[in-house]
TrEMBL record:
GO terms for molecular function: cysteine-type deubiquitinase activity; proteasome binding. It is an enzyme of class 3 (hydrolase). This is ubiquitinyl hydrolase 1. Residues 702-1262 form the USP domain. It catalyses: Thiol-dependent hydrolysis of ester, thioester, amide, peptide and isopeptide bonds formed by the C-terminal Gly of ubiquitin (a 76-residue protein attached to proteins as an intracellular targeting signal). Its EC number is 3.4.19.12. One of its GO terms (biological process) is regulation of proteasomal protein catabolic process. It comes from Cristinia sonorae. PROSITE patterns: USP_1, USP_2, USP_3. Keywords: Hydrolase, Protease, Thiol protease, Ubl conjugation pathway. The keyword Ribosomal protein does not apply. Residues 105-136, 371-391, 804-931 are annotated as: Disordered. It comes from the Eukaryota.
Length: 1281
């Protein structure tokens, strides 16, 4: 049933002829031999009604490749569309009714009789009245296509037509998505309607695409222009704005050009992608009286009706009075003032603030009758003489207001029952209104006669769950029918292929909701059918994606421990898939799992738009065979060699050509299960590539296959391998006999001879370490001799590297079962009884303490992490003082009970453990308890890179301890680990202010210490490695509550200098650790002279002075660009822009001056920043100049560890190692199983903007010859010798 290569297709595709390269859904005869869906029935079974939905313009091949961005770009589809019922709601609020309005001259308009409302005035008419013509009155309606909305007291311009020519676009129009194919549109006059189409009905209905503000209303056939009075008001506003811009002289603000003003109102364009129909709609064009006042007056009258009228009649009467006043002014030339306190005025309307506002809007100013007296107040009718510009404008405005108030009044009256007006005798108005709804709904194809309503299953009525589904499909629930849903879905997929999964998801959700709400199965049959058809075409939803990702092992608590996101690349997915397949071969429900894996790969290949993954899916997928079944299919035994398999396969295919697919699948499965490059190569090319191993050059380093969760371990193991002396020390331990080792128990005295990491080690630890090194040696052997391109570290090796002995012991102690050996071996012989938990935790603050105060700097995934355990100190009981802020001063212990085995520091010295990470983040929460970790992690407690590194180094050192030769006294550099990785530094704790003087009670503390890492805090941009190190070597710490200067100098340098870039930073605001992606510039060489204890004091002083200024300068830059509320300049610019452009809020305080001030501030900040940056650059140059001749301690970059990912807690790790000693300009990139050669430019690249950046750099002393990168066994050389 499941046949991936050949998914069921719409048969219609087969008989579609192809003049347009398109696919029709169901068409008339003439386009193919089949008609009316008969052909389809064969494919889909008789019940499928979905194939009968008419829809054209589809292209099967294009839909198949919806995920391919390049293909999509070629097709230029217009994006999501909407069906007519939703368009009708988009044109204007569906709760509002739009009306056609026409106006004619009122009867008796030429009569000169005096108005009844103008009593009490003796003023006589002084000007000659010019009554408006019938034409003038007709044009009081803004446009032939303007429709009145009572709820807005405004107008909406609507027009629709079927035309092969689109209206001219506005100058400013810049479509955000392509316009529908015009050629296709021209072929069909309208999707809706009968018998008009040359080829019959091609589409179920229209599919409209919106283009916002696309058409200039002034360029319509009947242009729409704002009236002079409106223009004047708009112009006034614009002029005011322009003047203000000139005043501020800010050139960054776009001053409206004269041409811009030529553009009129911009209309939204809705174009059907299938036919010539389009539709235009404007925003609401507001009426003369703001709708707020209109509503207020009506409300006021409803709640305070006149005594002699019903509430409704009172409203009517008030509006009619306004109409009368307007008519008298416009048509009768009534020019007398209206005393607002007059009895008639009072009884008809009353005098309220709203009335006052309305008359102000109408241009009737309020004036006292007699200028010298306050009362009585009167309304002064405006001048409307058409011979003056002002009069002409006012005349237009009053006429418009009159039409609007009339329309409003009539609609109000129509909307109430006639009895609600009592016996009130309404005035006859010369304006008529008529609902336009049916007309425009028919025009755009949304009329109920065109699209039936009321077919939504009852269970779905009022189901808000589906709102996103309806909206996404571009339809409304009320217009639901299976056909329409089918059409909407197919049309969206056709026009917006990129979002195919979203649309499929909608379909899926609709079906789910139908099921859960109990829609009878008969009513959802069609949807179900469509869903199945689409599923069989490989369509998937976001839910399917989630499931697929989980099957492949994605998810933080899943096998891969990584979420599927943009960071995950093809390679990674492919590997996860192959691993999944391998696992499935041992699973009981392996077949089902393989099916899921194939489906998941298909989904991910589409999600990632990856041709490579899709190819893998197409070529490598089997039919769900297990390896056993595969061998059976080819009738060979499992032991048969690759070359024999190829021969067998070739014959089998010749014998039974019909079985080729099956055979091929079988061989594919075998190739994967054997991990055979040769078979893969054969499957890919059809040619036996021979022994593939030969293709991987013998002198290439080998890769390491990844083991589950071991992310960074491979980088470390490869790193260790490149270090010649380490490799040579470890290799001989490949052949360790553990039997004898366990028997050969060391005496307690033996154990007291050595300290590793400042403490004694246990028998158990020694045994464990030997096991580790034994495994490591075996791995090294494989890396040297293996002929295959990548080898796999053992589980044991990974476990021993990732889990510290302390973890292991703790876990054992927590567990109920006690390892028998634990009792005897886990004892810390020399310190008497088993240490308390506290002590042990403190010892394991950094799980492996190589040397007190040196390796102890704590660490985290990519750098330092402060533990809840507090700072490490050597023996709790000897701590004499514990300063604040992790600054611990400890008297060097006289090694409590051990005699004379003091550490490498003199007994009189002060032990200092400083916290080098500044600013110091609060402690992170303790790790999750083991129980939780257990289920999700392969090795229980997961350590971070540097802990793991420390653990490995500890074990190497411990395993190499020599208990029989007494050479291993405490002299530092006896062990290979100490010799290679450890240097000596001197720390001085001095007063912050030099003038504090040496006599201060705070004497200068000084001591020497070993170190294996230098730390560079990575949090800010624009720093190079010297800058970072400077902060390490000269820092300010808090000691005994006082700030002190911590100066560090280097006394002795190790051959390998490991510099850790501490990318894990702590965000105080969010209380979250995050990864800093800042770029730290580094080069191939670094000179450490300036940090040496022996550096010239006067240069140091000079450098320090410059550094202080530079730091201050950088602090200021930081404050402006990255500190709290930063960056300032863009923020200020944004605020100014926002305030200037927004008009939703009325902010009294915000005037143009205020905005100008903000802008000036922005410029100021930008200027300061520029200045500071220039200054910082100059100081940096000065600083480098001080040291330019100090080049006697050159170190060369040899290894770079990269973490790629946005989060500090997971990601992908890889590693670069320089090809030493042979080709120093060439580098190897170790990416798990792949090792490739890359140019040095890749290693040194500026990583700004990337999430892949170094977390550790290793430099080696020039000419120290400690790194031999490749070290491969060379048989040729052997023969030569
Ligand atoms: Zn409205
Ligand atoms: Zn259409
Ligand atoms: Zn469309």
């Amino acid at each position: 049933m499941h046949d991936d290569r050949n998914p069921p297709r719409y048969t219609i595709n087969d008989n579609w002829p192809d003049a347009f390269g398109t696919m029709h859904w169901d068409t008339t005869p003439g386009w193919g031999e089949s008609s009316s869906g008969k052909g389809d029935v064969n494919a889909w079974g008789a019940s499928s009604a979905t194939n009968k939905v008419e829809i054209d313009g589809r292209n099967f091949e294009e839909e198949e490749n919806w995920w391919d961005a390049a293909r999509r770009a070629e097709c230029k589809r217009p994006g999501p569309g909407v069906l007519p019922p939703l368009l009708s709601e988009l044109l204007h609020n569906p709760e509002h009714t739009l009306y056609s309005v026409s106006a004619s001259l009122p009867k008796h308009s030429h009569s000169n009789s005096t108005s009844s409302t103008s009593s009490g005035s003796s003023q006589s008419q002084s000007t000659i009245h010019h009554p408006p013509s019938a034409e003038e009155v007709r044009k009081a309606v803004p446009h032939a296509n303007a429709y009145y909305c009572k709820e807005h007291n405004g107008w909406v311009l609507l027009s629709w037509c079927s035309s092969t020519v689109l209206p001219p676009f506005a100058r400013s129009f810049n479509p955000s998505s392509p316009l529908p194919d015009q050629a296709r549109r021209k072929r069909t006059q309208s999707c809706v309607g009968e018998g008009e189409q040359p080829f019959g009905q091609a589409n179920k209905t229209h599919h409209f695409h919106k283009y916002e503000r696309a058409v200039d209303a002034r360029m319509l056939n009947t242009p729409f222009k704002r009236s002079e009075w409106e223009e004047e008001e708009l112009l006034k506003r614009r002029r005011r704005k322009m003047t203000l811009h000139e005043e501020t002289m800010d050139t960054s603000v776009k001053v409206p050009q004269v041409e811009d003003e030529v553009e009129g109102d911009l209309l939204d364009l809705y174009v059907c992608c299938q036919c010539s129909v389009y539709c235009l709609a404007s925003q609401v064009i507001p009426g003369v009286i703001p709708v707020k006042y209109v509503e207020d007056l009506t409300k006021d009258k409803l709640s305070h009706p006149s005594l002699d009228k019903t509430a409704h009649a009172s409203v009517l009467s008030a509006w009619e009075t306004i109409i009368t006043i307007l008519q008298n002014r416009i048509f009768k030339g009534e020019n007398r003032v209206l005393p607002v306190t007059g009895a008639k005025f009072q009884s008809k309307i009353g005098w309220t603030p709203v009335i006052r506002q309305i008359f102000e809007q109408l241009g009737f100013p309020l004036r006292p009758l007699v200028p010298s007296e306050e009362q009585p107040q009167t309304l002064q009718p405006p001048e409307i003489d058409p011979s003056t510009p002002a009069g002409r404008r006012m005349r237009g405005k009053l006429l418009r207001a009159w039409v609007e108030v009339c329309a409003y009044t009539i609609i109000f009256q129509k909307s109430k029952s006639s009895t609600s007006f009592g016996n009130y005798d309404a005035q006859k108005l010369s304006v008529t209104v008529e609902s336009a709804r049916e007309m425009y709904q028919t025009g755009i194809g949304a009329h109920v006669n065109q699209i039936p309503r009321g077919l939504l299953p009852d269970n779905l009525l009022g189901c808000t769950d589906l709102n996103d589904v309806w909206e996404g499909l571009g339809m409304t629930p009320s217009s639901y029918s299976h056909d329409l849903v089918t059409f909407a879905y197919l049309a969206q997929c056709r026009c917006d292929p990129a979002n195919t999964p979203t649309y499929f998801g909608h379909l899926h959700k609709l079906h789910e909701v139908m099921k859960t709400t109990g829609v009878p199965s008969s009513a959802r049959e069609e949807i179900e059918m469509l869903l199945l058809q689409e599923k069989s075409r490989g369509r998937w939803s976001k839910e399917d994606l989630k499931r697929g990702a989980a099957v492949l092992g994605f998810g933080l608590d899943n096998a891969l421990g990584v979420d599927l996101d943009d960071e995950v690349d093809e390679e990674f997915i492919l590997r996860a898939w192959k691993d999944g397949l391998k696992r499935s071969w041992t699973m009981e429900d392996g077949n089902e799992r393989r099916m899921q894996l194939y489906d998941a790969l298909k989904i991910l290949s589409e999600l990632k738009s990856s041709k490579r993954l899709l190819d893998a899916w197409t070529h490598e997928k089997g039919s769900g065979m297990s390896p056993d079944a595969a061998y059976l299919a080819l009738q060979v035994s499992k032991e048969v060699e690759d070359d024999m398999l190829i021969t067998v396969y070739t014959f089998a295919v010749q014998d039974q050509p019909s079985q080729i697919e099956k055979m091929r699948n079988a061989l594919t499965v075998i190739a994967e299960s054997r991990d055979s490059q040769r078979l893969r190569g054969f499957l890919e090319t059809g040619v036996d590539p021979g022994d593939v191993v030969q293709q991987v050059k013998m002198d290439m380093p080998r890769g390491l296959n990844q083991l589950g969760n071991t992310c960074y371990l491979n980088s470390l193991l490869q790193y260790f391998y490149t270090i010649k002396d380490l490799r040579e020390a470890v290799t001989p331990l490949a052949a360790t006999d553990f039997k004898t080792l366990e028997e050969k128990k060391l005496s307690d005295d033996d154990l007291k001879r050595h300290r590793v990491g400042g403490r004694l080690v246990t028998r158990r630890e020694i045994l464990r370490s030997k096991k580790f090194v034994n495994q490591l040696a075996e791995l090294f052997w494989n890396l040297e001799y293996s002929e295959i391109p990548a080898v796999t570290p053992t589980m044991d090796l990974a476990k021993l590297a990732l889990v510290t002995s302390q973890d292991e012991e703790e876990d054992d102690q927590c567990g109920t079962a006690t390892d028998a050996s634990n009792d005897t071996d886990a004892t810390l012989v020399d310190d008497g009884p088993l240490p308390s938990r506290t002590q042990e935790r403190s010892n394991s603050a950094s799980p492996v303490v190589m040397s007190p105060g040196s390796m102890s700097d704590g660490s985290s995934v990519l750098g330092k992490r402060t533990r809840t355990d507090g700072p490490m100190d050597v023996d709790m009981d000897s701590a004499v003082d514990k300063g604040k802020d992790s600054y611990v001063v400890v008297e060097k212990p006289e090694a409590s009970s051990s005699k004379g085995k003091a550490g490498h520091s003199g007994s009189a010295e002060v032990e200092m453990v400083e916290d080098v990470s500044k600013p110091q983040p609060p402690a992170l929460p303790p790790r999750k308890p083991r129980e939780v970790d257990d289920s999700v992690m392969m090795f229980g407690r997961q350590h971070d890179v540097s802990e793991c590194m420390d653990n490995c180094m500890f074990q190497i050192e411990t395993a190499l301890l020599d208990f029989h030769e007494m050479a291993g006294t405490e002299d530092d550099k006896t062990s290979v680990v100490k010799r290679l990785f450890y240097g000596k530094k001197r720390q001085r704790l001095a007063p912050l202010d030099a003038s504090e003087g040496a006599v201060s009670r705070y004497s200068v503390h000084e001591k020497e210490d070993l170190f294996s890492h230098l730390h560079v805090n990575v949090s800010e941009e624009g720093y190079d490695l010297y800058d970072g190190l400077s902060r390490y070597f000269d820092d300010v710490v808090e000691f005994e509550g006082v700030k002190r200067r911590m100066e560090v100098t280097l006394v002795d340098l190790p051959p390998l200098l490991q510099i850790q870039l501490q990318r894990v930073q702590f965000d105080r605001e969010t209380q979250q650790a995050y990864k800093s992606q800042a770029y730290v510039k580094f080069g191939e060489t670094i000179y450490l002279d300036r940090f040496m204890d022996t550096a010239a004091p006067e240069k140091k002083a000079r450098a320090k002075a410059i550094q202080t200024r530079l730091n201050a300068c950088r602090d200021r830059i930081y404050k402006l660009t990255q500190g709290k509320h930063a960056p300032f300049a863009p923020a200020l610019g944004g605020v100014a822009d926002f305030l200037e452009k927004q008009d939703a809020l009325r902010l009294e305080e915000v005037d143009d001056d205020f905005i100008a001030v903000i802008k000036a501030e922005k410029d100021h900040v930008s200027a300061v920043l520029e200045q500071e940056r220039a200054e910082a650059g100059k100081l940096k140059e000065e600083l480098e100049a001080v040291w330019k001749d100090d080049v006697s301690s050159p170190y060369e970059l040899t290894s770079v560890f990269i973490h790629r990912g946005a989060s500090p807690s997971w990601g992908h790790y890889f590693f670069y190692s320089r090809h030493l000693p042979d080709k120093p300009d060439s580098w190897f990139k170790y990416n798990d199983s792949d090792v490739s050669i890359v140019p040095k430019e890749e290693v040194l690249a500026d990583t700004t903007g990337s999430t892949a950046n170094p977390y550790m750099l290793v430099f080696t002393r020039k000419d120290s010859d400690v790194v031999h990168t490749v070290h491969r066994f060379d048989a040729d050389q052997l023969q030569d010798a």
